[in-house]
Amino acid sequence: MKPRPKTSPYASTLLEIEFNEAESLSYVPKVFLQDQSWVSEESDYYACNCSEEVGHVLIHYLFTGEYQILEIDETKVSQDKSWAELRIATQVLLALDEWKLPGLQGLVQSEIESLSKSIHIFDVVRLIDKELNGFAIKQELWLKNFLVNSLNTAFAKNSKEFEDLSLLDKLHNIDLIKFLAKNLFKTYHSRISKPLRRKGTEERRKDSQDTDSVSAVTLTPESTSDDEFETSPKIKTSKIKSIGGFGIEPTLIGIKDKNDSVSSLNYVRINKSSISNSKDIHDQASSSFGLSKHPDLFCNGEDNLESFDFSLSRSFKSNLIGPYAKSERRSYHNADPSFEPW
Length: 342
Known about the structure:
Layout: E1 14-20, E2 26-29, E3 45-51, H1 52-64, H2 81-95, H3 102-116, H4 121-131, H5 137-157, H6 174-209, E4 214-221, E5 233-240, E6 242-243, E7 246-247, E8 266-267, H7 279-289, H8 302-308, H9 314-317, E9 320-321, E10 324-326, E11 332-334
Parallel strand pairs: 1-3
Antiparallel strand pairs: 1-2, 4-5, 4-8, 6-7, 9-10, 10-11
Helix pairs in contact: 1-2, 2-3, 2-4, 4-5, 5-6
């Protein structure tokens, strides 16, 4: 229960307040205005720059703690009733830079949000643009952010309305134009980049699904003549999941010699992390690779060879030089520059 006053606040000295174009003065006990910086003990009169419509909202809140406007004479306004009510609410909010009434600020902000739902957002922007004066910094910032949020919501519902930005041409407040232009650009950018990010995610997901299988590419020149060494090769592709118990990395690279010509060679990269230490696997690896002069598969790098832990014949080693895979043309291709050659 609130404490009871010892003396009636309504019996305190009254302050005469004159609003613009008001037909009569408003009288408010000074005790109600003790938080207002513009109230003076030496004077019982104050001229306020607000209209009588706005003044009524301010005085009514001081007495009742509620938001209320005067009845609107629709014969005197060119727009509909909701438009007129939104204009008054906006003016009241801007007046709160001078009148320190935190409770009223929350009420009028809710009123603006409610009234704006029945008015097209572009019309709301134009209305608020006419009311901004550059003095009520805090209140104007709230209005700007409110407009941006409302525009983003409208954009999400119907982006076609935003293809023509002539809205900005009809505004007058430079600060508002800059603020809206910057934030609308952010909105456009985020809406455009989302499909691109989604497409990239889908492509990466598709690539990850291909890790269970890998293509081994056989490059075969059309001619074996030395004079036709630059001939474009034919490409044959086959699917390989594993070889000799060893996992195969999904990424393959084409084999070209120093002259940028394609050599006839089967090549895969072996993932050493998937190699087992089992002797059976080692034996299987030996049989899988074979010790032919031109093996079908070349392992990549010194580290991989050490992991196999089996002997290679001299003829097989002659075709392996660190990360370099030797082709039938006796030229070399650096399969992985990150490995140091033997």
